[in-house]
Each structure stands twice: as structure tokens, then as C-alpha cells.
Design goal:
heterodimer; A: 320 residues; two-stranded antiparallel sheet; 2 strands; B: mainly alpha; ABC transporter involved in vitamin B12 uptake, BtuC; two-stranded antiparallel ribbon; 72% helix
């Protein structure tokens, strides 16, 4: 019984953690280029609403509908990121304010809600959603089966993405350039790297991944649309990048840990175990984020931390 | 810089630009939002007309605009004060919740006190609760350098769930357990008559006491920022943290005290919600209103100037009022946040652009004419 609960929590931790992995990787790439994106929550909501709209309104085969929905969510997220990039990189509006503006623009009382209403997709069950794939036919293996071999395509894609991002950051020349841009844009510029282009591209990729993280909600986790359904996950994703010390490998671990905090309440509830009030379990991921952020800023952690040195600072080449 | 645009800083911004740019930004925002409305099959002109009449000319319209503007005035001041020092208190939302919890407790507990004393006690109760809630990210920021943006934001959610727990999931002091309706749907206890704040009636228009209090607070904050040593140190820390450190300003204490004041102001927004308007702790209503987050919009549009916050709170209060009044199948509710966002983009972008002069990059300007261009730029 007890081990069943633990396994159930861990399995749903992967589901709840997947949007954190996707949005977190996006934020990580943007921050590595020196751009702080506080618009993740809004970008996720835009991804979620667009993906759901496309999957509802297209009358094509499920696989194609889902593929197009995923692409649409990435375009929606990247479009929001473009606004942020233009304001913060080109016009040099304060990145914090610009990011918050994106979240208000696209967020719970903003464009995502607007589109949800005019597209008339609120409160209806989704027609298409990602199902679990029995990978290599191994889903009945004890423990590892449900954990690794019985997930949906989104989860598998997120694992591939983590490896791809790690390879990109640490093993390729553009990845090296990206880190240089984030650490010392003036030196990178002197080397002939186009700082502005690197920042734009990685902010847009970050937005696309945030949109994809949003699509996970409406295409896999719970296929329906309601205003503000991400409920703070975008913010946790931003925090995650900090206490993962800007490293993709730690980010995945953190995402599943926080997925577990989110999964704990619903799992206990379905089994009618009520030790603490449900509000406590709902607040748990947010409380733990505060604790994790505080722990990551102690002097022990500070020696290991990898904050990109130019994070949040607009780059201008001193001319004439 | 790469790209065809040439951007250089103006040495000083002409006065007419300081007025023209925000107006042009608002106009541009109205055009952009109009394009969005038209693209989704709404008539922008008639939508704007409906919004204007709902917020201003309709019976009771102006009164409701002030009802929405009052909490935004406080949360706007909360954000503007902290942001002025580049201390990013995004926790106004949660600090407002905690302020409402504190003020409701005071109002319920001391219900038989004389009205003026009780009102003061409620204001202090809300302010204190907001301050305590803001102290958590403040202390973490000051002594561990923990990112206050994220911690203050996370605590909004925690405060929200705490409020839900008090009313929906416990037999707390705040919850109404006796009246017959309360057993069907959980609600908070209604405060007594002495805990109701008086409004100022001018004909059919009612000015909430909270708004008057907020104006007083805005003036006080302006004096604090502009005319005192405390404010001078704040401005130094905001503009140049290193200079502040070297000049011996006690930066840690400053962060804690500024965040505490900021949180206290948001707490008073909670007091005003209880005393001016709701008279009951209503978690769902407070959460749906999003006054704390809207305060960030207000502060940013006011460019962190406390007096400008008063005006901007009325603008955004009117917009929000129109949004709620027109809510229905033909009016997209999300338009309110969308328009707030668009106004932010254009005003913030415009404000920066007003500080720069922008031209099209010319290829290889000869040295002599380049020098002339520069002198010409200084002279204008």
C-alpha cells in the first residue's frame, strides 16, 4: 500500500514535472544568453490556449491535429517572446518590467483568456490528447515500467530535448558562443559573435518551449481549457533555473522533485488520505520553492552557482 | 550596434516630448487593441464607447471606477515605492490578502470599539499583516541575497491558499458558522457597523475613504522619496547599488525597511477591501480581482511616481470597471488584461524612446559632417 502510494506519486511527478522541464529549459537558454524572461507564465498560457484551439477545430487525423497543435503552441510562445525580445533587447526596457508586462498581457485576465472566449473553447472536453506509449513493450516491468516505459510522447520528447540542450551547451560551438554572450557580451562581440542575434534567437526558443510546456496541459495532462490553468507553474519554472544553477541536468531533477510536490495532494486525495488540509498540499510547491531559493543563495551554494554574469543587463556597444 | 537603426541618448528631453510621448503611446495602444478587436469581429469604436460609458457616464459608473481604483492605488504605491529602489516586490497580491485577513480579524475582534478608533485599528492591523508577509522575502533578500521577485511572488500563492483554508476548509475565527446560509456555502463572518468605513457622498457619487487615505499616502511617499535623507539613500541605491555600498548606506536595513513599508501599503489595500467595500473576508473575490498584480501595471505606467499612481489607478480602475460591467458573451473579458499589457508595451517603449534619438543608420559618414551632426544634436 505505502510503496504503491510512493510509486503513484513518482509516476505523476513525471507528468506534473514535464511542463516544468520544457518551460525551464526554455528559460535556461534565454538566461544563458543574458535575457531574463519573467513572461513564462503568460507564454505557457498562450501555448495552452492555442494548442487546445487547434486540436479542437481541426478536423484531421488525431496525430496530425496534435502535431499541428504542438507547432501552434510553440509559435504562440515565440510570438510573445518576440515582444519581450524587442522591448528588452532592442529598446532596452527593463527586462523585469517587460517580462511582467508579458505575463499580464498574455495571462489569466489577458490575451489567453480573450482568445479562449472568442474561440469558444472554455469548459469542453478535448477531442484529441496524447496517450501513453508502451515504449519497447516494457510497460509491465516492475517499477521501471510505469516510470519510464509508459509515458506519453511529450515526456519522451522532453527527455530527448534535455540531452539535446546539454549537448548544445557544452559540446557545440554555438553553445560555447551562447555561454560567452551570457557571461561577457563585450568579449563575445569582440570575437565577432552577433550578441543581439544570439539573444533574440534564444529568447524566441525559450518562448517556444514555454508555449510547448503550456500545450502539455491542454493536450496531455488534462485536455480542457480554463483561464489561468497553469496556476503558477511558469513561475516555478523560472525559480527552478536558479536553483538548478543554470544546468539542464539539475533542472530535470528539480522539475520532477517539484512535480512530486504537486502530485502529492491529488494522489492522496484520490485515495482519501487526509492528514493535512488540501490547501497545504496546494501551497506546498510554492513554499518549497521559497525554501529552495533560500537554500540556493546560501554561501555554500554560492560557490557553485553559475549565474550568467550579464543576466538582465542590456548590451550596448559603446560607439563613438 | 548592428541593424539599420541608430539609437543614441539624448542629453536632455524637451518638455513637449514628456507630454506628447505618453499621449501618443496611449493612442497607439488604443489603435493596437482596436486592431485586435476588429480581427475578432468586435467593433472597436462601439466597444470603446461602451467602455467609456460603463466607466464614467453610466449611473454609478464613476463610483464603481473609484471602487476598483482604490485597491489599485494602494497596490500601485506598494509596487512603485519598492521598484523605485529596484527592489522588486511582486508580492503585493499576497500582502493584500494577508492585510485583509489581519484587518478582518481586528474588525471582528474589536467590533464594539468606537468607530474612528476601530477604523485606525483596522488600518494598522492590515498594514502590520502586510508588513510581516513582506518581511519574509525582504529578510531573505537582504541577508541571503535570495531573488525577491520569485520569493515574493511564490508567497502570493501561499497567502491565497491560506485565505481559502480559513474560510472553506476550517472552523477558523473568520468563518461564519452560525447563519443558516453559511452551512450551504462557506462564507466569512460579516463585520459590524462600526467597522464600516464612511464614504464621502457628493450627489450620487461616493468617494471611498480608502481613496482619500491613498492620496494622503501618495503625497507622504513623494515627500519621503524626494525630500528626506531616507529617500535620497533609496534613490542612490536604485540608481547605483555600488555607490550606495561605498558611501556607507546600510543597504541591508534599507532593503528590509523599504519592502516592509511596501508590504504595509499593500496590507492597507486589504484593510480597505474589508472596511470600504466587502465587510467580509472573501477569498474568491480577492483572488479573482488580481489587485496586487494590477498594482504592478499601475506603478510601471506611473513610472514609479507616487502622484502619477493616483491618476493611473483611476485609468486602470476605469478599464477594470468597464471590463466587469460589460462582462458577457459579446464582450471579451480578457480584453482588460490585454489592454493593460498593450498600454504597458507602448508607454514603456515610448518612455525609453523619448530618452533616445533614433535615426536611420547612414553608411560611412565623413568625419567632418559627423562632427557637425553631433554639435547639432547637442544644440537642439
Amino acid at each position: 500500500m505505502n510503496s504503491n502510494i510512493v510509486l503513484a506519486v513518482v509516476v505523476s511527478a513525471i507528468a506534473f514535472g514535464t511542463p516544468l522541464v520544457l518551460a525551464g529549459l526554455g528559460e535556461l537558454l534565454a538566461e544563458r544568453s543574458g535575457v531574463l524572461n519573467l513572461g513564462v507564465e503568460g507564454m505557457m498560457l498562450m501555448g495552452a490556449v492555442t494548442a487546445f484551439f487547434v486540436s479542437q477545430k481541426l478536423h484531421v487525423a488525431t496525430a496530425l491535429a496534435l502535431l499541428l497543435a504542438v507547432l501552434a503552441s510553440m509559435v504562440a510562445g515565440a510570438a510573445m517572446a518576440f515582444i519581450h525580445a524587442f522591448l528588452s533587447i532592442t529598446i532596452r526596457v527593463n527586462q523585469i518590467v517587460s517580462g511582467l508586462a508579458i505575463t499580464i498581457f498574455a495571462g489569466i485576465i489577458g490575451l489567453s483568456s480573450y482568445l479562449g472566449q472568442v474561440w469558444n473553447i472554455g469548459g469542453i472536453a478535448g477531442r484529441h490528447s496524447f496517450n501513453n506509449v508502451n515504449l519497447f513493450g516494457l510497460k509491465h516491468l516492475p517499477i521501471l515500467g510505469p516510470l519510464i516505459f509508459d509515458q506519453d510522447a511529450f515526456v519522451y520528447a522532453s527527455w530527448v530535448l534535455v540531452i539535446a540542450v546539454m549537448y548544445y551547451l557544452y559540446r557545440t560551438r554555438p553553445g560555447l558562443y551562447l555561454r560567452a554572450v551570457g557571461e561577457n557580451p563585450a568579449a563575445a562581440d569582440a570575437m565577432g559573435i552577433n550578441v543581439i542575434a544570439y539573444r533574440y534567437v534564444h529568447t524566441l526558443i525559450g518562448g517556444a518551449l514555454a508555449g510547448l510546456g503550456g500545450a502539455y496541459f491542454t493536450l496531455a495532462l488534462a485536455p480542457f481549457w480554463t483561464d489561468g490553468l497553469t496556476a503558477g507553474v511558469g513561475w516555478i519554472a523560472i525559480a527552478l533555473v536558479i536553483f538548478a544553477f543554470w544546468r539542464p541536468d539539475l533542472l530535470v531533477l528539480g522539475a520532477y522533485l517539484f512535480g512530486a510536490f504537486s502530485a502529492l495532494g491529488p494522489t492522496l486525495q484520490t485515495r482519501h488520505i487526509t492528514v493535512l488540509p488540501s490547501e497545504f498540499y496546494s501551497a506546498l510547491p510554492f513554499l518549497m520553492t521559497v525554501i529552495a531559493l533560500a537554500a540556493a543563495s546560501t554561501s555554500w551554494a554560492n560557490r557553485r552557482i553559475g549565474t550568467p554574469a550579464s543576466l538582465g543587463i542590456p548590451y550596448t556597444r559603446e560607439e563613438g | 550596434m548592428t541593424g539599420p537603426l541608430r539609437i543614441e541618448r539624448r542629453l536632455d528631453t524637451p518638455k513637449w516630448l514628456k507630454v506628447a510621448v505618453p499621449l501618443a503611446s496611449l493612442l497607439l495602444a488604443a489603435i493596437l487593441a482596436g486592431i485586435l478587436l476588429a480581427s475578432t469581429g468586435h467593433n472597436p469604436i462601439s466597444t470603446y464607447h461602451q467602455m467609456y460609458s460603463a466607466a464614467v457616464t453610466a449611473p454609478g459608473g464613476l463610483t464603481s471606477t473609484f471602487v476598483y481604483a482604490t485597491p489599485m492605488l494602494f497596490t500601485g504605491l506598494c509596487a512603485a515605492f519598492a521598484f523605485r529602489m529596484r527592489t522588486w516586490n511582486i508580492g503585493g497580491e499576497g500582502q493584500l490578502y494577508m492585510g485583509a485577513v489581519g484587518a478582518a480579524a481586528v474588525g471582528l475582534c474589536l467590533g464594539d470599539w468606537p468607530r474612528p478608533l476601530l477604523i485606525i485599528a483596522m488600518i494598522l492591523g492590515g498594514a502590520l499583516s502586510g508588513t510581516v508577509w513582506a518581511a519574509i522575502p525582504a529578510l531573505l533578500r537582504a541577508y541571503l541575497r535570495t531573488n525577491e521577485i520569485l520569493t515574493s511572488l511564490m508567497l502570493n500563492y501561499v497567502a491565497g491558499f491560506f485565505m481559502y483554508y480559513l474560510i472553506y476548509d476550517s472552523t477558523s475565527y473568520w468563518r461564519d458558522l452560525s447563519s443558516p446560509g453559511a452551512s450551504v456555502f462557506p462564507t466569512g463572518k460579516t463585520l459590524g457597523p462600526n467597522a464600516t468605513w464612511p464614504g464621502i457622498n457628493i450627489g450620487s457619487f461616493t468617494l471611498p475613504m480608502g481613496f482619500v487615505l491613498g492620496i494622503g499616502l501618495a503625497v507622504g511617499l513623494l515627500v519621503l522619496i524626494q525630500k528626506t535623507r531616507y529617500g535620497f539613500e533609496m534613490r542612490v541605491m536604485g540608481d547605483s547599488p555600488n555607490a550606495a555600498n561605498y558611501s556607507g548606506i546600510r543597504t541591508k536595513r534599507k532593503i528590509v525597511s523599504v519592502m516592509a513599508i511596501s508590504g504595509g501599503i499593500a496590507g492597507i489595500a486589504g484593510s480597505s477591501q474589508i472596511g470600504d467595500f466587502g465587510h467580509v473576508l472573501d477569498p474568491r473575490g480577492l483572488e479573482q480581482a488580481q489587485y496586487g498584480y494590477t498594482g504592478i501595471v499601475v506603478a510601471a505606467l506611473a513610472l514609479y511616481n507616487p502622484l502619477a499612481v493616483v491618476l493611473v489607478s483611476l485609468l486602470i480602475g476605469g478599464l477594470t470597471n468597464a471590463g466587469f460591467a460589460l462582462e458577457g458573451p459579446s464582450f471579451p473579458t480578457g480584453l482588460v488584461g490585454t489592454m493593460e499589457g498593450i498600454i504597458l508595451f507602448t508607454v514603456l517603449g515610448g518612455e525609453i524612446l523619448a530618452r533616445y534619438r533614433i535615426g536611420i543608420r547612414r553608411r560611412a559618414v565623413p568625419a567632418a559632417s559627423a562632427a557637425q551632426l553631433t554639435t547639432g544634436g547637442v544644440a537642439s
